[in-house]
Design brief:
alpha+beta, Arc Repressor Mutant, subunit A, three-stranded mixed β-sheet, two-stranded antiparallel sheet, globular, binds zinc ion, binds manganese (II) ion
Length: 144
């Protein structure tokens, strides 16, 4: 049994990406978290182990992972991007109070892509869908 990290490392190696301890740590961190962190959050989590690492280094490494197809970036206008190493088909719910971003499974919306293609004449490649609201933690805090 090979772990997702081992698979990812093998994939990077075959793409000619040189591995460094920092790169390894960033990738492991992303594979082991469910929180969809920003680059700054990754930087803060790893800086005790890598005091010389800058947030720019984190960004550059994330770019490498994105180009290698190992990580997905989710942009939010002027706000920081969030990063997800889970590339399986899934959707997200975002708490507008605390910023928590949670996964949920739902059948892939192939019919939506098909209809969008028919109505717009686009060759539809992908779609992005998120739901917004208040997480249960924030809702119970508001009640208290
Ligand atoms: Zn919340
Ligand atoms: Mn996710």
């Amino acid at each position: 049994m090979t772990s997702r990290l081992e698979q990812a490392l093998e994939h990077l190696k075959s793409n000619g990406v040189r591995m460094t301890p920092q790169r390894n740590a960033i990738l492991s961190y992303l594979l082991n978290t469910m929180s969809h962190p920003t680059a700054d959050e990754i930087y803060k989590a790893l800086s005790p182990r890598f005091p010389n690492m800058s947030v720019a280094t984190v960004y550059n490494n994330l770019k490498v992972f994105i180009e290698a197809g190992l990580v997905r970036e989710m942009t939010y206008g002027d706000q920081s991007s969030r990063f997800d190493a889970d590339l399986s088909d899934h959707y997200h719910a975002l708490c507008e109070e605390c910023g928590k971003l949670v996964d949920f499974a739902y059948k892939p919306l192939d019919d939506l892509e098909k209809t969008a293609g028919e109505l717009t004449g686009f060759k539809v490649k992908s779609h992005r869908l998120e739901v917004y609201g208040t997480c249960s933690d924030c809702a119970s805090k508001a009640k208290a």
